UniProtKB/TrEMBL annotation:
Biological process, per Gene Ontology: fatty acid biosynthetic process
Domain Malonyl-CoA:ACP transacylase (MAT): 9-314
E.C. number(s) listed in UniProt: 2.3.1.39
Any Pfam family the entry gives: Acyl_transf_1
Protein name as catalogued: Malonyl CoA-acyl carrier protein transacylase
Acyltransferase as UniProt keyword: yes
Amino acid sequence: MSEVPVGLVFPGQGTQRQGMGEPWRDTPSWTLVARMSEAVGEDLEHLLLRTSTERLRRTDLAQLAVFTVSSLAHAEAERRGLLEPGPVACAGHSLGEYTALACAGVLTPLDAAALVAARGRAMRAAADARPGAMYALVMAPFEEVAELTRQVRESVGNAWVANVNAPGQTVVSGSPEAMAAIAERSRSIGAKALALQTGGAFHSPYMAPAVEELSVALKGVTFAGGRFPVVANVDAQAYTGDGDWAALTVRQLTSPVLWERCVGTLTGPLGCRRIVEIGPGRTLAGLIRRIAPDVELWSVDCPAALDALPGLRP
């Protein structure tokens, strides 16, 4: 068994782009695409190979695309035996939590895909009904961003912290007017405000209408105990068979993603000394370098990266 305890992490929406499935097209794991297409009622092969980057900005399509590519990467790593005898825990950022649940065996891959499809449709509908915006505030401490957000909520309204990603990176979410006010005042706390290309005010009360639709989809899904713990976004706690994942995933729609704390749980109580990001892009690796700079990091964003990945076997 590996002497290095390994944790797996999975990215969320924002890493999608045209042709993102092409690197995986010739791998044995590509057979998953047809099965997942049937489960979600969407032509995922077309989505991953030919859909434009602009169209992939649509919330429901973006989430399906990122989830599917992350699932392909994970399946290929497992097929090659690179994840044996197994990680000690995993986590996913927002959408990535569903990939993590499938990775740990809490959900089947097809059930996870169906939930991702339902979640994406519900969030898109909520955003269409009540337009919102999101900004990343970088280079400022979380406490100052939280205080600025509170002040804007009191003076303008509808502004919330959506993601606590890493030291010096906090994402805020809310009405376009409130987000514009935060961006305008961000310099007062030494922050730089970056508009995110999202379809709405995610992880805020603006997503409350999506709760009912996701709850309906969850009624037809069984959550298993899982092979190892998954760290939840909403409270950064590690859950195995004792997790009420139906409730946790619903809460995630309107609650902030506590990613910095999730990584702290992986690298602290769970003891992960090697973190492997599996899926498109290397966003999470960049955040983890700032959260836990002493942890060994690897990214699997293409088949070639698998060739370099140190197996968990000695």
